[in-house]
Every structure is written in structure tokens, then in C-alpha cells.
Amino acid sequence: MLVCADYPTGQKFTPGPDGGIDVFVPDGESGRKVLQVKNFAMKFTSTEFRQVKRSLNRVADTAEAQGWKVTEWHLVTPRDPTPGYFAKIGDLVAARGISSWSWMGLTHLDILAGRHPDLVDYYLNGGKDRLVEQLADLTAIIRGDMTAAQGQRLQPSDIGERIMALARAANNDPHYRYHFETSDGPPVARDEPWLVAVASEQHGPLWLHVKVYAKFYAALEERPITTKVRVNTAGNPELAESFEQFLNFGTDVYVPADAAEAELDLPGNLGGVLGNAEIRIIAGSSEGGEQDDPPPTLMAGARNPAGAIVAELELHRTELTRGVRGGVRVVWTDVAELFKLEIRSMPDSAELDVTITMGWEIKGRLPADLVDTFAFMDALERGVCLGISPSYGPRRYDFGTPLQQDRENDLHLTARVVSALHIIQQHCNELLRMPSEISSPELKRIFEAATLLQGDPATATWAPFTLTVDSDDGPTLVPGARINVAVTTPLTITLDETDHRLGLVASFLDATVASVDGSQVTLNPQDPSSKATRVLAVGEEYRVWVDSSSLSPPDDEGVE
Questions:
Q1: How many other β-carbons are positioned within 10 Å of the β-carbon of residue 415?
Q2: Phi/psi at 467 (nearest 5 deg)?
Q3: Model-level pTM greater than 0.85?
Q4: In the chain, fewer beta carbons within 10 Å around the N or the C end?
Q5: pLDDT for 496-544, tens place per residue?
Q6: Do residues 181 and 211 touch, judged by C-beta distance below 8 A?
Q7: 398 in helix, strand or coil?
């Protein structure tokens, strides 16, 4: 425990098949500092040397087998080294390729004892019993007489002295430290390093929070925090099912106050039996990694009835939970966190329970972050098979049965919009985000702009319009003449009432001169069903070019 207190991130192994490791400290991504603890207090002879040699070899073999590196190795024993055995152990360490080591003997342990006197008192001098009694007395004081009169707010001066007294006494605990806070409301969940519990009580209008922090990782093993929960599911089938899923797969569960009772064993006598209390058990994802765990990423593929892969999407493992009955629940999510694949399995069943969830929260997001996800979700229609494959190497899909749902029209349209805006963004210097809503005319302009920006022509119907002709330079137009016209206009789209300029577009029109009034000329489509051909252009805005070979009116039989 002295070693663990000096290395707070050290993890302690219990006696057994520990791979030659008593305590290890993570050191980088793939390194560990290993501390081997030996109770050689009376002597260190050839017998003890052989034990150290066996432990050292086991450590080195374990590291090679599991793919990590021993960055430091330390022998911890309450006996200082002799020059001969110090040299022998040094040779063993060097032979196994370990660059740094030390012998932490009695002198070093005396230094550690000086740094952590609370540990010595707790384990050797009866401090454990004294600490329990002291905390019980002080906790009773702070709970007993600190209520305020009705409607009266407690002031810091009313409780500060008692809190400081409790803090001084409580922080003699060798495993945990205690901090105290007050607020006007109940506690708010926060992720803090080393925080293991928060005990809160309301005293009149004021809340007092006692926050418990582990001093080092091994504290949770030496003085574990345990909870006993009794749940009554009678008459509540929804709670019964939720609790079954928790037992099977370790999923979240909420138990209302009328169906729950808990007994908390918290440090500092802060626990006890809690009746009429809501209980929420939140899944803790165990991403640690047994060798048979699935890889952190995989590919999802959609195969159509003809056998072709029509879409793929990389998924990342975001949750891995295990139930007390041995079931495993794995959740895979795309980078946009819109597509979720949840797989549940029980150890006694060969079947997998697969659930697909698709989200739609895209307002304000970047099209590039969504395009792959929506293309994949849009491909999932009736008859398509969903498969999964490792993300490395050639695809090795394992496909399930064909899906039974029809494609959603709204999803298909949204996928088209995301794809179009993704194309447009590659040609637009302004950052585009998904709008909150799009009108039908705006939608048409987005699709047309995407087509044009890819270098493809687009067609569109057009309505009669009037233009001003320069009488000096312009051609002479007469009513009834069939003419070819080219018009350049800005290419823009509108997202959430903001216009985005994308360039120029040229529209080629087959028109008829409807009327001429001085310099004002009105043009009609030559045929009501005729459409303008539109392409990207370089030129002046709102410039009209007229083909001078088509200025005369048609004859009686018509001219094609």
C-alpha cells in the first residue's frame, strides 16, 4: 500500500496467477513500470534470489506474450541490498532487455512510511478503528444540528467551523480524501479525476455535498465501495424488462422510489440504508480489452438482392457492457453519431439480437460530416442485407437476413440534399451548414447548383421576360421572330435566409419575340414545353446574347 500511495496510478494484483506482477503503473501507450513486492525481511540468500529471478522472468515473458514493454522494474523488499546480489539482479535485468531498475529496500520503505504516516497508523497502530469512530461522531454532528429555521438561509459562518473540523478528521483516511461543498440545489453529475462518490444532504434551503476521492487506484481494492440494491418489479412489467436487460447486458436502469431500497457502504460512514430513493444505474463501458473482444472499428455494408455492395460505412465501438449473467452488449456508431448498431449476445445462445437506430439531428452540421452516413442509411431499403466486416484487410462480410422496411421518402430526400451541399461546398469559399428548413424553390436551386458545379448541364423551364435592348449596338428585333438567346445570371443558393454566391450560369433559350416597344423587348418560350439548357459560364452578369441569324419572323408554314 505504501508503493501504491507513492504511485497513485499503480494497479495492484491480488495473489494468484499474476504474471509475476504485484503492482504495475501504466507508462505511455504500451509500457508499464512493474514493482515486484517480496516479503524478505529476515534474510536474502540464494533461495530468495531464485524467487526474484523466477518473478523477473515471468514479468518479461508476460510482457512479450501480451505485447507491452517493461520500461522500469523495481524490487520492493524490507531489506537493503548487498553488493553481490545487487549486481546479480542487475545482470538478470539487463539480460531481459529492461533498461531501468532499482532495489527499493528498507531505507526506501522508511522514506515512504514518512511520506504516508496515515497508512502506517491505519494498518499497524489501530488507526482503522479510531478513524471509523471519529468519522461516525463528526458525521453525526454535521447531520444533527445544522438545520435552519423555516425560510431562513444558512450562512457560511454557520457551518464553516464544523466543516473544517470534519475535513481535518476525515482526511486522516489513508485511502480516500474528502472535500466539502455547499450549493442552493441538489448535486450535479460531473466527471472529475479520482472522484468515486458524492453524498449530499439538504439542510433547510442549503445543500451540503461531501465528495469522496480515491488517493490511489489500489484504494478501491483495499477498501472497496459496495452497494446492495433491492428492486421490487411486481406490477411493473416495464421495470421488470429493464431490470432483466441490466442483469443480462449491463444496460442502464432506472428504479423509481416506490420500488427500490439501497444500502451503500461508503467511506467515512457516509452510506447507510436508503429508503424511498430513486436509483439510477448507469452502464460503465468496459473498453479494456480481452483478446477476444471485437476490434475498435468495423465496416457495415449494404448488399442489394443482386449481390452487389451498394454502400459501406465505418463504425466505431462506443460502448461495451457486460451483465452479471454473462451477456455482452456492443454499440457501434458512425463518426456523425447518427447511425447506431447495437448487438447483444448471451453466452448460452448462438443468436445475436441486432438493433439499428438512425438519427436525424443535422441542423447546423457540416455536409462533409454527414454525407457518408446518409448515403449508407439511404441504401437500407427492403430486400437489402446488412453485413459487418473487420475494417482491416479484404472485406469479409457476414450478412444477415434481408431488411423488411421500405425506404423513407424523407430520408431519401435528406440524403440527396446532404450530397448536393457536400458537392457545392467543394466550390464555395463560404462554410455551408445544414439549414433548419428548405423551401421547394430553394431545394430546386440546390440540386441544380450541384449538377452544374460537377460540370454537367441542367435543364429548366422558363417564363416570359422583358429586356432592354441598346438601340445603337443591339440587333433589330421584330415581333414573331424566332431567336436563340443566351443569358448569364448569378448562380446562388439560399440557406436559412443567407445567400451564397457560387459563380455564373449561362442559360440557352429557344425564344419568340412577343413584342417590341422601343428598347423594351419581351420574349416568350418558342414552345410552352421548351426548356432552357444551363451550364456554368464565365462572363458578365445579366448579359443577353442573341443569335443574329434568327431575327426574321417565320413564314406562313413555319421554320424549324
A1: 21
A2: -130, 160
A3: no
A4: C
A5: 999 999 999 999 999 999 999 888 889 999 888 888 999 998 777 778 8
A6: yes
A7: strand
